[in-house]
Structure formats: structure tokens, C-alpha cells
Design goal:
This protein is of the alpha+beta class. The longest helix has 15 residues, at 17-31. It has one domain (17-98). The chain starts with 16 loop residues before the first helix and ends with a strand. It has helices spanning 17-31, 33-38, 48-53; strands at residues 45-47, 56-58, 65-74, 80-92, 96-98. The chain contains 3 helices and 5 strands, in the order ααβαββββ. The protein has a 3-stranded antiparallel beta sheet with strand order 1-4-3. The radius of gyration is 15 Å and the shape is globular.
């Protein structure tokens, strides 16, 4: 895993080791170990909307990689009252092309 954040951060990835390992495992299953070495959660594995914003489209037939993030629910005082899991659908660089 890259210890240093790249200059240009494109994703909302917060540095979770568990999330990194989960997505890296899916990349390993689909494209092999060499692609895991190229995987950067900050720049090349992004949600659909972010790829669109950057001028890319998801290739026909591609299936997203799945990740989980925790959404904080806060009360009126701004205090976290609970955290709930939310599935995030990501697409790796090999799954997109310039629009």
C-alpha cells in the first residue's frame, strides 16, 4: 500500500487499510497481482460520477468493485449518534475509457 498520498487526490478514500485490502483483493481476482501493484485508491479507483466528471465513461459490460463506507448520523448538536454502512461502487482504471 502506498504510504504517501499522491499530490492529486481524486477520491474520498480516507486511508482505511481494510478498505484498501478489500478492493485490492477484488482487483487481484480480476486482473492479477501486477494490477494490484498499480492500484492507488486516491487516483485510479473511483466512483462512476467521479470518472464522468473527469471525462471518462465506464466500458460496456463492466461490473463495479464493491466497498463499504460508514455514514455518520448526527443529532441537532452535531454529535455522532450512530454510524451505518453504505456500499460504494467503484471502477478501476482498466474499466474506463476517455468519453
Amino acid at each position: 500500500m502506498n504510504a504517501i498520498k499522491p499530490q492529486e487526490v481524486l477520491s474520498n478514500y480516507s486511508g482505511s487499510k481494510k478498505t484498501y485490502e478489500n478492493v485490492a483483493s477484488q482487483i487481484r481476482e480480476r486482473w492479477g497481482e501486477k494490477e494490484v501493484e498499480k492500484f492507488c485508491p486516491y487516483t485510479n479507483c473511483l466512483p462512476y460520477a467521479k470518472w464522468r466528471e473527469l471525462g471518462y465513461k465506464v466500458k460496456k459490460g463492466e461490473v463495479s468493485l464493491k466497498s463499504i463506507t460508514l455514514i455518520e448520523e448526527k443529532n441537532e448538536k452535531g454529535e455522532v449518534i450512530r454510524k451505518r454502512p453504505r456500499t460504494v461502487h467503484l471502477f478501476y482504471r482498466k474499466q474506463v475509457a476517455k468519453a
